[in-house]
Amino acid sequence: MKDIIGKALLDYFHGNYTEDIITETNISEEDVLPLPYMFRNFTEMPKMEQKALQLAKGKVLDIGCGAGSHALYLQERGLQVTAIDISKGAVEVCRLRGVKDARHMDFFELKNEKFDTILLLMNGSGLFQKISKVAKYLQHLKTLLTPSGQILIDSSDLKYMYDEGDDGGIWIPGDRYYGELEFIIRYKQEISEPFDCLYLDEQIFEQACLSNSLSFEVLERGENYDYLARISAV
């Protein structure tokens, strides 16, 4: 798979910023992901992200670390942070920016380590890809937690993106869960292969956690059906 995100982050870091990343899904038009946003500092982050970072404690795992903004803030707080990403370019940028432990690896390659806090931010549930895979991901996350550890994850209920009927219900697809999206990203002349990304409503997410012997608590809700949750072992 092309490392489009990594190429874009490296361009920005090295002063070659000429355009942004374009995203598109199967239910929405093109949108812009500004590269400077990936390099934001704590004061520039949304309140929900700030809350998650303030709640982080102990040994931290940052999954899908991107350019390393979360990891850098936590390092400044004196926490030990392991940052991982499947983008080789993103991990290179993290290291160049000063992240001490940045690893180019898939989530499932991480084994035999325990963390007090696991961060999954910027729609962290996107990692799960499809609703049929949620249990598999939750079970592996569970193996990485210390007994009193926490997973801090954000997601959104995408019901607002669907048309509403006269009875107040929404028109949703009959062949899939409405939070299952297919993304394509574009940067300069390169276009990614389609990839899956999952957005979970609170009720389904909570039920999935309970089914896997995990607790689920919503810590904060945003203005657009987005929310921050804490997951921990029962």
What does this protein look like?
The protein has 234 residues and is an alpha/beta fold. The chain has a single domain, classed as Vaccinia Virus protein VP39 (Rossmann fold, 3-Layer(aba) Sandwich). The chain is 26% helix and 31% strand. The protein has seven helices and twelve strands. Strands 5-4-3-6-7-12-11 form a seven-stranded mixed β-sheet, with helices on both faces. Strand 3, helix 4 and strand 4 form a beta-alpha-beta unit. Helix 1 runs parallel beside helix 5. The termini are far apart.
Instruction: Report the total helices.
Output: 7
Strand content: 25-35%
Instruction: Please give the alpha-carbon distance between the first and last residues.
Output: 37 Å
Query: What summary fits the major beta sheet?
Result: 7 strands, mixed
CATH architecture assignment name: 3-Layer(aba) Sandwich
Broad CATH class: Alpha Beta
If you average the pLDDT, what whole number results? 95
| Structural shape | globular
Low-confidence stretches: none
Radius of gyration: 18 Å
